[in-house]
Amino acid sequence: MRSFLRASWLWTVLVAGTLLSGCGYNNIQLLDEQTKSGWSEVLNQYQRRADLIPNLVNTVKGYAAQEQTVLIGVTEARAKATSIKVDANDAESLKQFQQAQGQLSGALSRLLAVTENYPDLKSNQNFRDLQAQLEGTENRITVARKRYIDTVQNYNVTVRQFPVNLTAMMFGYKVKPNFAVENEAQISKPPTVDFAAPAKPTG
To answer: Which of 25, 54, 187, 202 has its CA 20 to 30 A from that of 4?
Structure first.
């Protein structure tokens, strides 16, 4: 009797596994994990940028302490961006996160624009290293975001398709919100880093 029950149980498991696989359950699992991994990478790259900012601000402050408005703007934008507890599956939470990161990008662009007025700062090796790290990080953010956007789109298409949509509905897998930034091209463009030597004064 036990052998019969065990065989019946194994048969039930095999049939259920086959049905779930045929209805896209395994594919949903795979794509869901890919979106989670992609989102973690996005957060890691944004955090890398946030970690660079204090040193960048302090370096600029050493040469351009009078630029208080810009320096405070970057510091406040960083504080806001790092304080948001974002849920990538919640559209409103993701929107707030995007807005905060966009404001930080704008504040950083204004800071780098101000540094053009300070040749001694531009030639400082520490500042040049920080600029290079910032540019590399912005590029990583762009790549990570693009990969995440593509992964979410792939996941969303899958859970909408028949008959996978029935499996998704049964197990509670819903369409995920995605990045939708109005000035996407501007935000994705990394800050310009100019390593040219400062022009010598004439006269």
So the answer is: 25
Exposed, middle or buried, 93 (CB in 10 Å: 0-12/13-18/19+)? middle
Burial of 8 (C-beta count, 10 Å sphere; 0-12/13-18/19+): exposed
Output the six-digit token pair for 95. Answer: 């929107």
pLDDT tens digits, one per residue of 19-75: 444 578 999 999 999 999 999 999 999 999 999 999 999 999 999 999 999 999 999
Residue 168: burial class (beta carbons within 10 Å; 0-12, 13-18, 19+): buried
Give CA–CA dist 195/14, Å, rounded: 63
Give the number of residues written for the chain.
Answer: 203
Q: Where are the domains of the chain?
A: 42-147+180-188
What residue type is assigned to position 34 of the chain?
Q
pTM of the full predicted structure?
Answer: 0.78
Res. 188: pLDDT tops 50:
no
